[in-house]
Design brief:
Largest sheet: 8 strands, mixed
Structural class: alpha+beta
Radius of gyration: 20 Å
Order of helices and strands: EHEEHEEEHEEEEHHHHEHHEEEHHH
CATH superfamily of the largest domain: Bira Bifunctional Protein, Domain 2
CATH architecture of the largest domain: 2-Layer Sandwich
Number of strands: 14
CATH class of the largest domain: Alpha Beta
Distance between the termini: 55 Å
Low-confidence stretches: 169-176
Helix content: 25-40%
Strand content: 25-35%
Strand order of the largest sheet: 7-8-9-10-6-2-1-11
CATH topology of the largest domain: BirA Bifunctional Protein, domain 2
Number of helices: 12
Number of domains: 2
Amino acid sequence: MYVIENRNKKPQYNLALEETLCRKAAQEGAEFFMLWQNEPSIIIGRFQNTLEEINGDFVAERNINVVRRNSGGGAVYHDLGNINYSFIRADERGDFDFAFFTGPILEALSQMGAPAELSGRNDIAIEGRKVSGGAQYRRGGIMLHHGTLLYDSDLEVLSQALKVSADKFQSKGVKSIRARVANIRPFLPGAPSVDEFMAELQSRISNLTPLTLSPEENEQVKQLAKEKYASWDWNYGVSPEFTERRKLRFPWGGLEVFLNVQKGLVTSCALHGDYFGSGDYTPLLDRIIGTPYTKEALKKALAGLSTQEMFAGSTLEDLEELLLPKV
């Protein structure tokens, strides 16, 4: 597995670099690992409605970057006290498997003296408090697994920058972001610096071979960062118009639906949330667009629909609970 040494702190560049490495992995059959950091930023999940995830006034006042990533899941706050890690390799498992990729990180943290453990579907916790969240992106036979490591982050800024919905707190049985998260540094003997922690963590990931991108590849990253990850269309997009809006939280994630209904028929449907999935809603949309907006008609249209690819971990009953009108 190749390790990429990356000191760039711009989130637009770093997310473009991940995407470029995914393409390189697909073309060359290579595997990559990378540790990296972002200047203060909010990184939005692929399927989320950006404006509903951020504290807009606070973000503008602090000049915090807002950038959308390719993977699903929820919005996260990055600063220079947070370390991100990425694994890029062939998608041999064919599913969203977080334990497989968090294993080496958990083992490294344990060897360094931090009593970390896997928590929920995609988090790492110490003494019940979240110190890391992971997300995944599958495309073209390649799996990208990346995650945060809250090492010495400003948790006060984190708590103000993210506008987290009440249903997420309720589902996790806690009352605030600060009650849910912690930094890793206080749990390590000697409280090493961020740079010392990154060097030690990387040294504990086995079989890494250093690799530097060519100048041409680096230019490709910069161009992608400019055209995609710095664009308003990608990071914010147009907020959906709707006549019906519903939002529910399931064990596999939160899902919000915006339905346009004209003359009693469903004319459009937009979906947002912190779930994981393919991002291709064609199997669902083909069934409901043009269908009468009644419980009976929609239930009939949805009959037999497979939901797992669109929303990993979901069931048809979950989708019916969200989409079907009560009468």
